[in-house]
Design goal:
heterodimer, A: 275 residues, alpha/beta, Rossmann fold, 2 domains, 23% strand, globular, B: 312 residues, mainly alpha
Chain lengths: 275, 312
């Protein structure tokens, strides 16, 4: 076993403490697209160190919320606070720099590059050299490149993609592409990672392994917010769950409470069995 | 690596000694025209590498040409000061135009750059008193002598454009090889993913656009002083489209592509001795043939030939 993996296993075996402090606060967020209210008056918090599940029927506003938090859409009103500072209205790259990184629902990769190149580019925020130093490839640019490469290999090893590092991203199997998506986000060293339907298109075995990986990320001290349609998986994974319907929060609590919540069952009418 | 360096050295010495072999003005003119084009076309390729297709590159050549002309003829500046300044002015104009337009993607950006190019051309056509109007500005002075080299024949111009092309090439290769080039192409491949990992995509798109237009400005300035004449006729939509055709025919995948495209497409109409009016037709036919037979451009021809040999 590689030493890196050992360290990870030890730390994830310890019960990672969920602190009572908030890492992200959603304060009265609304987002309107023309006449359509995708999100209305949404408020909740994410605690430092936890895995928060975000569920709701199709069109409930989960991905819109991700886009608002990560800066892809500015909210119509309301505030997003990260570690006590207001990040509302910042650009996606500025929010990533603060430590909030998201993945995408579909497969979103640098398709024509190899897996390793994808990861090296994703270390953008770790690059210390400025534009001119990069252009003329001076010592600092070179050492950045070596550091990015080393860290990329670490992450690939962790995500189980080491054997595929020289494959073009577009040639990977779907499950590996999803893993690469998360690996890319990891390279930006997030403190809060937003995963948008990470298990879509995976078979049972792939899902099981992937859930282990996600738990491992939490074990390494990354706070996670996960949108997922697989109810069994999200109930097993999350410490707490927030349920959205028509852009409003209809429930919030630990998985056992959510399972019994009448309003949640109604929202998923016809699919109670799933919960 | 050693082989590559040796290759560079051989080509460099060959280009340096070229005027010693022939001083035929006709042949030198083809070489100089190739240099003017390729400097500009490298800029187009750089802008394309971020995923933005510009249809108005000639406008920035025009800005460079007229800026340099006016700085020399009206402000009395030396060519050697006006020349770099014209690049800076072009880059500055690109900054002003790029700020609102680079947010726009795909065909809309292309249409806006096209519209801007027409605006620039129309301003030149209609501002007769200051910019010479349709008739253009004649008698643009040659560059002042330096190191007792006088710009009388074509040879000094050849060396000047050679130096400019080499510097441009070198900067393009540096960009391509460094992280900067990879950032550009990552924006091209997925701008949302690039943003999500902390890349300020506007900053990098702007950098590519301004650097590309800087070289277009230098190229335009050289053009004006080489022909001693500038006119809006040189900077029509056709010139912008030619820039794109040169990239595609040469091959967008390599820095050498635009050079090959510029050389090949400067040479072909000369060899065919076609009238200027039929040039677009020739270019169109070549573009279609290349797109069908060699989608990667002429630069992929050697690899293609070798590959076929291996298969046989």
């Amino acid at each position: 076993m590689k030493p890196f993996l050992k360290i990870f296993l030890r730390s994830s075996a310890e019960v990672c403490r969920i602190k009572n402090e908030m890492i992200l606060e959603i304060k009265d967020i609304s987002k309107h697209f023309g006449g359509l209210a995708a999100l209305s008056g949404l408020s909740f918090e994410i605690h430092s160190g936890e895995i928060l599940g975000l569920i709701g029927p199709n069109g409930a506003g989960k991905t819109t919320l991700f886009n608002v938090i990560s800066g892809f859409f500015p909210p119509t009103s309301g505030k997003v606070m990260f570690e006590g500072t207001d990040i509302t209205g910042l650009r996606p790259d500025q929010i990533a720099q603060k430590g909030v990184v998201r993945t995408f629902q579909g497969v979103n990769l640098f398709k024509h590059r190899t897996v390793l190149e994808n990861l090296i580019i994703a270390h953008h925020l770790q690059v210390k050299a400025n534009f001119w130093e990069l252009l003329f490839n001076n010592a600092r640019a070179k050492s950045d490149e070596i550091a990015a490469r080393k860290s990329s290999l670490d992450i690939l090893g962790y995500m189980g993609l080491m054997g595929l590092k020289d494959e073009l991203a577009q040639n990977l199997a779907h499950g590996h592409q999803r893993a690469l998506g998360v690996a890319i986000a990891m390279a930006a060293r997030p403190r809060l990672l937003l995963l948008d339907e990470p298990l879509t298109g995976m078979n049972a075995e792939e899902s099981r392994q992937f859930l282990e990986l996600i738990r491992g990320l939490q074990g390494r001290g990354i706070t996670l917010m996960v949108v997922e349609h697989d109810m069994k998986a999200i109930m097993g994974l999350s410490h707490r769950i927030v349920v959205l319907n028509y852009g409003r929060k209809i429930a919030e609590g630990v998985p056992q409470e959510i399972r019994k919540n009448q309003e949640v069952i109604e929202a998923y009418l016809g699919s109670e069995g799933l919960i | 690596m050693g082989k590559k360096r040796l290759g560079y050295l051989v080509v460099f010495v060959a280009l340096l000694l070229f005027p010693a072999v022939t001083q035929d003005p006709y042949i030198l003119n083809i070489a100089i025209t190739t240099g003017i084009w390729t400097t500009s076309v490298w800029g187009v390729r750089l802008i394309m590498s971020t995923g933005q297709l510009t249809l108005g590159h000639a406008a920035y050549m025009a800005v460079g040409a007229y800026a340099s002309t006016l700085l020399v003829m009206k402000a009395g500046l030396s060519f050697w000061l006006a020349f770099p300044l014209s690049g800076v002015i072009s880059a500055f104009v690109a900054l002003l135009i790029g700020y609102p337009t680079l947010r726009i993607k795909g065909v809309y950006f292309s249409i806006i750059t096209f519209a801007f190019a027409e605006i620039v051309r129309l301003i030149i056509v209609h501002w007769t008193t200051f910019l010479g109007g349709f008739g253009g500005i004649a008698n643009i002075p040659a560059p002042n002598p330096v190191f007792s080299i006088r710009f009388t024949g074509r040879v000094p111009y050849y060396y000047l454009i050679l130096a400019l092309s080499i510097v441009t090439y070198w900067i393009m290769v540096c960009m391509e090889k460094s992280r900067i080039g990879r950032i550009f192409s990552s924006i091209h491949e997925s701008d949302t993913l690039a943003e999500s990992i902390g890349i300020n995509i506007m900053k990098y798109k702007m950098t590519a656009f301004c650097v590309g237009c800087f070289f277009a400005g230098l190229s335009g300035s050289f053009y004006a002083h080489y022909f001693n004449f500038t006119s809006p006729e040189f900077f029509t939509i056709w010139q912008s489209i030619y820039c794109l055709i040169f990239v595609l025919v040469g091959g967008a995948g390599s820095v050498l592509g635009p050079l090959l495209g510029s050389f090949f497409l400067t040479l072909v109409p000369e060899l065919l001795r076609v009238a200027r009016e039929y040039e677009p037709v020739v270019y169109a036919i070549i573009l279609i043939l290349v797109m069908f037979l060699l989608p990667g451009g002429l630069i992929t021809l050697p690899a293609r030939l070798l590959g076929q040999k291996k298969r046989n």
